[in-house]
Amino acid sequence: MSTWNLNALYLGFDDPNFTNDVEKFKETVEKALAYSHTIDDNDNYRDVLYNLLKLFEELELVAGKVFAYISLNLSSDTGNVTAQNYRVQLQQYSAKITLLNSKLLKYVAQIPNLDDVINSDEFLKAHSFIIREQKEFAKHQMEPELEVLATRMSQNGSSLFNQMQRYLTSTAEIEFRGKLLSLSEIRNLASDSDPEIRKQAYEAELQIYKKIEDAMSFAINGIKGEVNTLTEMRGFENVLEEALLKSRLKKETLDSLLEAMRDYLPEFRKYLRRKAEILGHQNGLPWYDLFAPMGASSTKYSIEEAQEFILNNFATFSEDLRNLAKRAFEEEWIDYFPRKGKVGGAFCNNLRAIKQSRILTNFTGSIGDVVTLAHELGHAYHGDQIFNESILNSAYTMPVAETASTLCETIAKKAAFKAATNDDEKLHILETELQDSTQVIVDIYSRYLFESNLFEARKSSIPNAKRLNEMMLESQKEAYGDGLDPEYLNSGMWICKSHYYSGYLSFYNFPYAFGLLFAKGIYAKFLEQGQKFVAQVNKLLRLTGQMTVEDAAKTVGIDVTDPTFWRNGLEVIKEDISYFLKITEDKVK
User: Fold this and answer.
1) 3-state SS string over 271-308?
2) Is residue 6 part of a domain?
3) Tens digits of per-residue pLDDT, 494-518?
4) In angstroms, rounded to a whole number, what is the distance separating the alpha carbons of residues 67 and 58?
5) How far apart are the C-alpha atoms of 145 and 134, rounded to whole Å?
6) Both 282 and 241 in a single domain?
7) In the prediction, which pLDDT does 589 show?
8) 3 state SS for 36-59
9) How far apart, in whole angstroms, are the C-alpha atoms of residue 42 and residue 140?
10) Distance between CA atoms of 90 and 184, rounded to whole angstroms?
């Protein structure tokens, strides 16, 4: 019950269905590639485009199962040698898929009357957005043989560095109070009720980073250098431009979001300083007390209790949401507890090929862990909605990826606050929500600054671990200001955050801020309009794979290019901070 069941994918690596699908994947790649070699001078645009998309559809179905099974096994056991070997074996086909994709881009780019071709066929019309999107990507395409080379080189560069980060951070251990604990277990102690344990855990965390920081400095430099090189080769002005294109997001929208976030940083600093004063700190809040619990909540949730809480409160939004969560629990989609070899944090993997999801958490029973579980179930709900669309129309981008998850997180938090039986418990829940909001706005801003500065620095240097630590501290100081004690920051945040270690997805930070504030806007509309608004939310989620972020937002009446929208969401958080300041006036030491 406490670990996920992957039998809906395969019964094991020795399952004939798995080995058959591996062979089917290889055969499909070869079949698609063989066809792509025949299209260069073929001006029967409709048929070629149709056939190419159908081949990609076939590939998505089989690859989605095989690669998800490998990835999920490696997430729950980073030392799984069989999974690692299959990953290496199948990576060889990535270059062929890159060549296939390059040929599609090149072919679409030279179609003279693309709109007419799309409108000549119902299947093409149903996929008009992604076809036109391919034409935009074609503008930043290297020659096919160079794209293939880039893919092959990344398998020995960014991909391996990414695996190294996951392996080192999941297996690194340190003795703590007589026990050998993993990094995830140490980080979980940041919210312990004992202040001495929190401080000692913080110090132990920094010691773990010290052990692996040199190796990780080479890894992150390798990845960012690779991305910088390929971005320039593909004709992007910078890495952010590429990230925005992949996010289907306008720079105008991001600028509006960041502008609003910067304007409200002083409000978050008021909260941090007050928390510091309550805990007896005079120079701002030390990092080790960022997640210190406040108020009184001795409640610890078992898995069953967490499930019941979520089911009851998801039902207040819709029966569809409740039923999705119920299905996830009953069909064992979730791997709950931390352990050595399991990656830290939490994620949800939408398995489009089987129309299910799998969720990983590091559950310890706190209300925060219940909220995290609700968050990941929100991702599963997004997946459940988008599974109604064709598999080619189901790939949504980073900013909207956090919409349903943050909405579900909000439902859980509001319910927990409402159910609180006394003022101390309400303070605990309110302050926990402010912790989360601070992470998603302030810390995310520091991560955005760090990654921006690292990409720039990497153009002319290879920052060593010492410099990377300094850059992390500089970013934290700029974002947190006088809210944190400058003597107790966390220089190793660049090591433990896996989002920095992708050669494909850069700037996986601002989407969290986007998701938080976008979801608050959607939740406000739900409170205003009630159950009739749920259908619009579901429609929004289904369309995220076939619209720009701006157009998807318009379906629920939101203009994300307007800074006022983001400020309205931040005003809600400001009100929570003001309430926190009011009810804690008599608690300052």
Assistant:
1) HHHHHHHHCCCCCCECHHHCCCCCCCCCCCCCHHHHHH
2) no
3) 999 999 999 999 999 999 999 999 9
4) 14
5) 18
6) yes
7) 63
8) HCCCCCCCCHHHHHHHHHHHHHHH
9) 23
10) 30
Here the tokens at position 553 are 């937002």
CB atoms closer than 10 angstroms to residue 133: 16
How much of the chain exceeds pLDDT 90, in percent?
81
Q: Say yes or no: 109 and 124 in one domain.
A: yes
Q: Is the domain of 549 the same as that of 581?
A: yes
Number of compact structural domains in the chain: 3
Instruction: Please report where in the chains the tokens 């989620």 appear, as a residue.
Output: 541
Which of 419, 450, 485 is a domain's end point?
419
Residue 181: partners with Cβ closer than 8 Å, 6 or more residues away: 173, 174, 175, 204
Domain span including residue 550:
172-296+437-587
355-381 tens-digit pLDDT: 999 999 999 888 889 999 999 999 999
Share of the chain above pLDDT 70, in %: 99
Q: Which of 192, 369, 370 is nearest to 289 (CA)?
A: 192
Question: 97, 123, 156 — which closes off a domain?
Answer: 156
Residues 260 and 329 in one domain: no
* DSSP-derived 3-state class of residue 328: helix
* Residue 5 domain flag: no
Least confident residue range of 202-216, 291-305, 455-469, 543-557: 291-305
Judge contact between 165 and 216, C-beta under 8 A.
yes
Alpha helices in 110-179 (DSSP H): 114-119, 122-126, 128-138, 144-155, 158-171
Strands 179-182 and 347-351: unpaired
